[in-house]
Design brief:
The protein contains twelve helices and twelve strands. The chain is α/β, with parallel strands linked by helices. The model has no long low-confidence stretch (mean pLDDT about 85).
Length: about 375
C-alpha cells in the first residue's frame, strides 16, 4: 500500500508540474502576443506620424528658392500639362516630377506610390465631314440632334468644332448648321495640303488638324476612301489614287499626337452605286479610258470593303471606335462617342505596390488646384 501511495503522490506532483508549466507557457505566449501587438501598434503609429509630417510639409513648406509649396508646384504643373515648368527669370526651370519623387523617397524609401487624379479640363474634339452628296442624309440626322449632342458635350467640358472638306464634288457645307448652337464652330478646313478631290480627303485632314490644334479626339464621317473612292470605282479597282499616302499621313499624325480617332461610315449601297446614272456619268467624264464603270464588283470592293477596312484600321490603331451607320443611327453614334471621349490619365509617382505585402495603407490628400477657385485635386499616397 505504501508503494501505491508513493506512486500517486509522484503522479500528483507531475500533474501539478505540468499544470504549472502550461500556465507559464500560456502566460509567456500571451505576453509575446501582447509585445508583438504593441510593436505593430508602435510601428503603425510611427508610420502615421511620418505620413502626417510628410503631408504637412508637402502642402505648406516652401521649396527652397521659390515662394511655393511642393503641392502648389504640382498644381501648376497639372494646370500647364507639363511636369517641367519654367517660371522665368529668378526661378528658372523646375522639374516637379523629380522634386516629388525625391521628397517622398526621403520619407518612405522605396515603399511608396503617389497617384494624382487629374481633373478634367476643357478638351477639344473636332468633326471632319465628307461633303459629298451621298452623305447628306446622315449629316442631316446629326444636324437635327446637334443641340442635344452639344449639350452632352458641354456637360463633359468638351468643345466641339466642325470642319467640312470642300472640293469639286461638294454638295453642302456649314450652311447645314445655320441657326444651331454650333453654327459659329463650323468652317471649311483651310490652310491644309489636301488632294484635288478634297471633299473626301479626311486622311490629310486628320494630319492637318492634329498638327494645328491641341486635340483630344477627332470624329470622321465619310463613306469613301481618304482620297475619294471614285478612282477605284471607275477603274475596276486597278487604281487607288493617293489613298495610301493620305491614309499613312493620318495614321502617323494621330499616333504621334496621341489623338483618338472615331470613324463613322455612311450607308453606301453597292446596288445603287452600280445602277446609278450619275455615278456612270461621273466615271465617263473623269475616267473616259476605263468606261464602262462602275459595276457591282467594283462598288462592293472600292465603295464598301476598302472603306470599311481603312476606317476600322485607323480607329483601332488610334484608340477610337468604328461605327457603321447602316447599323447605328448617326446621332446615337455621335452621342456614344461624346460619352466615351477619354479622360486624362492619372499621374503616377513612386513604385509598384507589392502584391505579397499585408500592411498597405492609403491616405487621401487634397491638392489646391490653381486653375479654379476652391477646386481641389484628389490624390492618394500609398505606403507599406
Amino acid at each position: 500500500m505504501s508503494s501505491k501511495g508513493q506512486t500517486l503522490e509522484i503522479l500528483e506532483i507531475l500533474f501539478l508540474l505540468v499544470g504549472i508549466a502550461t500556465v507559464l507557457l500560456i502566460v509567456h505566449f500571451r505576453q509575446v502576443n501582447i509585445n508583438e501587438s504593441q510593436k505593430e501598434l508602435l510601428a503603425r503609429e510611427h508610420l502615421y506620424n511620418r505620413v502626417s509630417d510628410a503631408i504637412l510639409v508637402f502642402q505648406s513648406s516652401k521649396i527652397y528658392g521659390t515662394e511655393k509649396s511642393l503641392a502648389s508646384l504640382l498644381s501648376d504643373a497639372i494646370n500647364n500639362e507639363d511636369l517641367t515648368i519654367n517660371y522665368g527669370k529668378g526661378y528658372g526651370e523646375i522639374n516637379v516630377s523629380k522634386l516629388v519623387s525625391e521628397f517622398f523617397e526621403n520619407y518612405f524609401g522605396k515603399n511608396w506610390r503617389f497617384v494624382v487624379y487629374v481633373p478634367r479640363g476643357w478638351v477639344n474634339v473636332s468633326f471632319i465631314l465628307d461633303t459629298s452628296g451621298s452623305l447628306s442624309d446622315e449629316v442631316n440626322i446629326i444636324k437635327d440632334k446637334i443641340e442635344e449632342i452639344n449639350l452632352i458635350a458641354l456637360k463633359k467640358k468638351i468643345k466641339l468644332n466642325i470642319y467640312t472638306l470642300k472640293g469639286r464634288g461638294s454638295s453642302w457645307g456649314c450652311e447645314i448648321f445655320r441657326g444651331t448652337s454650333v453654327e459659329g464652330a463650323c468652317s471649311w478646313l483651310s490652310g491644309c495640303q489636301l488632294l484635288e478631290q478634297t471633299e473626301e480627303d479626311w486622311g490629310n485632314g486628320i494630319k492637318c488638324l492634329t498638327e494645328k490644334l491641341n486635340l483630344t479626339a477627332l470624329i470622321i464621317i465619310t463613306d469613301e476612301l481618304s482620297s475619294g473612292s471614285d478612282v477605284c470605282l471607275c477603274t475596276n479597282g486597278n487604281l487607288m489614287g493617293n489613298f495610301t499616302q493620305s491614309f499613312g499621313n493620318a495614321l502617323t499624325a494621330c499616333k504621334s499626337k496621341n489623338v483618338s480617332v472615331f470613324t463613322l461610315k455612311g450607308n453606301f449601297s453597292a446596288e445603287e452605286c452600280a445602277n446609278n446614272v450619275r455615278w456612270k456619268e461621273w466615271c465617263k467624264f473623269y475616267y473616259l479610258n476605263f468606261y464602262p464603270q462602275p459595276h457591282q464588283k467594283s462598288c462592293e470592293l472600292c465603295g464598301i470593303e476598302k472603306v470599311v477596312e481603312s476606317l476600322q484600321k485607323i480607329s483601332k490603331e488610334c484608340g477610337g471606335k468604328y461605327f457603321d451607320l447602316s447599323l447605328t443611327n448617326p446621332d446615337e453614334a455621335v452621342k456614344e462617342i461624346i460619352k466615351i471621349i477619354p479622360s486624362k490619365p492619372p499621374i503616377i509617382f513612386g513604385h509598384e505596390v507589392p502584391i505579397s505585402r499585408k500592411e498597405i495603407y492609403t491616405f487621401q490628400i487634397k491638392i489646391p488646384f490653381s486653375n479654379y477657385e476652391g477646386e481641389t485635386i484628389s490624390s492618394e499616397l500609398i505606403v507599406w
